[in-house]
Request: fold
Amino acid sequence: MRLRFDPAFFAALGMFLAIPHAASAMHLTDGVLPGPWCAVWTAVALPFVVVAVRRFQDRRRHDSLSAPLAAMAGAAVFALSCMPIPVPIAGTCSHPCGTGLAAVLLGPWAAVLITVVALAIQALFLAHGGITTFGADVLSMGIAGSFTGYFAFRIARHAGISLWGAAFLAGLLSDWATYATTAAEIAFGLHGDRSVLSLFVTVVAAFVPTQLPLGILEGFLTGGALAFVHERRPDLLSNLGIAVEKAS
Reply:
């Protein structure tokens, strides 16, 4: 399978490499999870990544806007996830993710691919995340976050919730799903003599002081972004298959 990406995709992300960042680690860092569990999470994430690549290639052949929109969404995911707040006892950091917004605009599969690119650049060049834990980070932020945000938005819209409200829920729940998945990965890999559930609850509790408000903030950011696009370019949302509300 030949991988082909538009240069604009990497150009939009690459401009952030010039911004200085502290070298504090975010996501799950190398050495946090045992090797066998790193392999497990990579094996779980890999099929999603392969499907995401194929679907994006097919989409590019039929939609000329897919690459530039993916570049803009990728820049947002990259920038938001480069704002770490350390959570020392969890061996990781809290931060916004942006995957809910990407999933709402472009679908969950495109959001998975966008997250893979953002995480790879952060791990390789910014000392954020890790190489051995790359699959675990993709699973939590790219897969769990993207699909949770996407389905939260679709279900909320189907239930009659406003565009802003549905987008808020997508941002909020995608963020929290990311950290619930991260907590599960840590619990499975490090529980030792403790039960997996006991360690999971401990890690979730460690995330609460930072991720509770960050999730709400990401909900407002996602809702605000959708509301802005709806006001300025409702045709763009319609072209992306997002039902817009008619002005009264």
